[in-house]
Specification:
The protein is mainly α and 357 residues long. The protein has 2 domains: 30-171, no CATH class; 186-337. The protein contains 14 helices and no strands. It has helices at residues 11-27, 33-56, 60-95, 97-111, 113-118, 121-136, 140-178, 182-224, 230-239, 246-260, 265-290, 299-313, 315-337, 349-356. α8 runs antiparallel to α11 and α9 (230-239) packs antiparallel against α10 (246-260). The longest helix is centred in the middle third of the chain and has 43 residues, at 182-224. The N and C termini lie far apart (57 Å).
């Protein structure tokens, strides 16, 4: 007895299925971050694992486990070292905060003589300190504790998921691909072959840009300008590179506020030159070199994607806004490049009819 042929899955059922999946992901967005980070790290490391497995001949599972242990070791060392620097500078910054606040207000007021006549620096600083003390006394410290505990559990879950993605990530991807109706798999496979290289280069390039920005900022701020709390400033400037367009602008603001606190005019000019040079080197050399032009979008599209992603999915939206928008651009480009069914070819009878009209 022959098996009855099924009907082709139409466009509307697919659209409804995609909408249901997106609605489900939106409802569980608070638990997605460890999965997204583990999948992204596994996606980045998988080509290296496959290369070592094919060239040396060691079992892939062994290569994956060794890679995971190396990643955990490097991650632990960096987390301990960076965490120690941040903790040291944060404690010192908290202790010196009243003096820093008064000095910053005084520098801003000094720029505008009109403000100097109407603003009492000490009174304004005391008011800000009182407001901050009231803010942190309303259970905010308890919230930070909860966020810290949640962050630790999130890291543990991410590492557990990472070993699974390294060992069987391709099987997981194949299982997701199996959910696509067979009649659409060839087209999806063709588009995926264009999207995956862009995503890999984007994530690797983003890590490179963050690392470059953080290391260069830390070296320059520490060794040349001797800026206090250089580690916190450098990490903040580097992490802000995750946020497209707005992040670099905030980095310039941070470096600008740091420059204002310089006692010498030479130091002020030097920090301003460094901020501009750092931005130019990222935008014109490092960024295009490590990320490439595959993920480049119009600034308006980036703003919309960034704000939409942040509003819908929070920090996950911040991380995935640009790559998702770039992937959509690739999908639409490939789709619109295909000829429309039942449409007369260019120069055919359709255009002849138009000419007659």
């Amino acid at each position: 007895m022959s098996q009855q042929a099924r009907s082709k899955v139409g466009g509307w059922p697919l659209a409804i299925a995609i909408a249901v999946v997106l609605a489900f992901l939106f409802s569980v967005r608070e638990i997605l971050l460890p999965f997204i980070l583990a999948a992204a790290i596994g996606f980045i490391l998988t080509p290296a694992i496959d290369y070592i497995h094919s060239r040396i001949g060691i079992r892939r599972s062994i290569v994956a486990i060794v890679t995971f242990l190396l990643f955990v070791g490097v991650f632990g060392i960096l987390a301990y070292w960076v965490g120690s620097l941040i903790l040291r500078d944060t404690v010192e910054m908290t202790r010196q905060f009243p003096q820093l606040l008064r000095r910053m207000i005084a520098e801003v007021v000094h720029i505008n003589p009109t403000l100097a006549q109407s603003i009492d620096v000490n009174a304004l600083a005391n008011e800000i300190e009182t407001d901050l003390a009231a803010f942190f006394s309303r259970g905010t410290d308890l919230k930070f504790t909860r966020y810290g505990v949640a962050g630790i559990f999130g890291v543990i879950i991410m590492l557990v998921l990472l070993i699974y993605f390294l060992l069987s990530g391709r099987q997981v991807a194949a299982g997701v691909f199996w959910l696509i109706p067979p009649e659409y798999r060839a087209g999806v496979d063709g588009i995926t072959s264009k999207i995956l290289p862009m995503l890999w280069r984007y994530f690797v390039g983003l890590i490179g840009v963050i690392s470059y920005t953080t290391v260069v900022s830390w070296i320059i701020l520490t060794l040349i300008f001797h800026v206090p709390y250089a580690s916190v400033l450098a990490i903040a400037v580097g992490v802000l590179e995750v946020i497209p367009v707005i992040g670099p602008a905030l980095s310039l603001v941070i470096l600008g506020l740091t420059a204002i606190q310089q006692t010498s005019t030479l130091g002020l000019i030097g920090l301003a030159v460094f901020a501009i040079a750092l931005r130019l080197s990222i935008d014109n050399i490092v960024g295009p070199l490590v990320i490439g032009r595959a993920a480049q979008l119009h600034p308006v599209v980036i703003f919309f994607a960034f704000l939409s992603g942040a509003a819908l999915f929070g920090i996950i939206g911040l991380i995935l806004a640009v790559p998702v928008a770039s992937a959509i651009k690739i999908v639409m480009t490939a789709y619109y490049a295909e000829p429309i069914k039942d449409q007369p070819p260019e120069g055919g009878s359709g255009q002849m009819a138009l000419r007659k009209v």
